[in-house]
Design brief:
144 residues; alpha+beta; 4-stranded antiparallel beta sheet; two-stranded antiparallel ribbon
Length: 144
């Protein structure tokens, strides 16, 4: 049985500690600490991977919304002018805020293709989306 040492009083009751705690024999072993740090490391890796997936999905929303906006503007322009245009200024297209994608349009009198390109993670690969005059939903051609 461990010896008991008085540490003083609190609210009129004596505070006691085991002699093993006073002698420094208590605490966690090295194995317990290493296992705990390993578990925290695994959880951090999983959290970072999940965060990056959600961040990339959020960034691609810009391309989808921008291309859908171009699609709507091009179809409205065609109804008024009987032709499509490759000039984004003539369409009235403008993205607000900090944009990651570069938008281009190829058009003739009967059709158009709009494209959004961005380098989301600073590697050679580009994230590429396109929308065509016949479709309302953008197509993801290349993933960055």
């Amino acid at each position: 049985m461990a010896a008991v040492t008085s540490l003083g009083t609190r609210a009129g009751k004596p505070l006691e500690a085991r002699s093993s705690e006073i002698d420094g024999e208590g605490g966690f072993s090295l194995v317990e600490l290493v296992v705990t740090i390993g578990i925290i490391g695994v959880l951090a890796v999983l959290a970072i991977a999940t965060y990056l997936t959600y961040r990339n999905k959020a960034q691609t929303v810009e391309a989808r919304l921008g291309l859908h906006n171009i699609w709507v503007l091009e179809n409205s322009f065609e109804k008024e002018n009987s032709r499509y245009t490759a000039d984004l200024t003539e369409l009235g297209f403008r993205m607000h805020g900090n944009t990651r994608y570069v938008y281009t349009v190829q058009a003739d009198t009967r059709s158009f293709t709009a494209r959004a390109e961005a380098n989301l993670d600073n590697d050679p690969a580009l994230d590429v989306w396109e929308i065509y005059y016949t479709t309302i939903e953008p197509v993801h051609l290349e993933t960055d």
